[in-house]
Amino acid sequence: MKYGIAIFPSKKLQDAANSYRKRYDPNYALIPPHLTLKQPFEATDERIRDISRELRQIAQNHQPVTLSIRKFSSFSPVNNVIYLKVEPTEQILSLYDALHDEYFSDVEPEYAFVPHITIGQKLSDDEHSDVLGSLKMTDFQHEETVDRFHLLYQLENGSWTVFETFLLGKEGL
């Protein structure tokens, strides 16, 4: 089965992201707005039990993270993805690193980690340029603290759902 690890922001931020995703993201119906901490990977039922135990330990050793968003950005020219740029705080980077240590080294990231929430993808060059140009003139300021991350699995229809939730910090014991 295919799994992934992500942070879901507050409903307020998800609603703001979805106001763009409805128009610009073909994956809008497959998964809510999220910050990917680990790209999709395959795991057996036995392996996922071991991974869950390790994720509980990681959660206990990390405090809640602050999501601070100040602007829209893009991965162009690598690909036409537009996103809300999440400031790469020490908290987020530490959590990401823990999810990519030797225990999880069987899945190497395809790209360098850039914390973000995708709002548009698979856009033509012209559409990407127009949408990004318009969004860069928009003032977007948001900050919140998130106290959990989620192990997700992919359903047969391509959508993602929560398999298990992990609370950050001591209260996650």
TrEMBL record:
<dbReference type="InterPro" id="IPR022932">
    <property type="entry name" value="YjcG"/>
</dbReference>
<dbReference type="InterPro" id="IPR009097">
    <property type="entry name" value="Cyclic_Pdiesterase"/>
</dbReference>
<protein>
    <recommendedName>
        <fullName>Putative phosphoesterase GS18_0200580</fullName>
        <ecNumber>3.1.-.-</ecNumber>
    </recommendedName>
</protein>
<dbReference type="InterPro" id="IPR050580">
    <property type="entry name" value="2H_phosphoesterase_YjcG-like"/>
</dbReference>
<feature type="short sequence motif" description="HXTX 1">
    <location>
        <begin position="34"/>
        <end position="37"/>
    </location>
</feature>
<feature type="active site" description="Proton donor">
    <location>
        <position position="34"/>
    </location>
</feature>
<comment type="similarity">
    <text>Belongs to the 2H phosphoesterase superfamily. YjcG family.</text>
</comment>
<feature type="short sequence motif" description="HXTX 2">
    <location>
        <begin position="116"/>
        <end position="119"/>
    </location>
</feature>
<dbReference type="GO" id="GO:0016788">
    <property type="term" value="F:hydrolase activity, acting on ester bonds"/>
</dbReference>
<feature type="active site" description="Proton acceptor">
    <location>
        <position position="116"/>
    </location>
</feature>
<keyword id="KW-0378">Hydrolase</keyword>
<dbReference type="Pfam" id="PF13563">
    <property type="entry name" value="2_5_RNA_ligase2"/>
</dbReference>
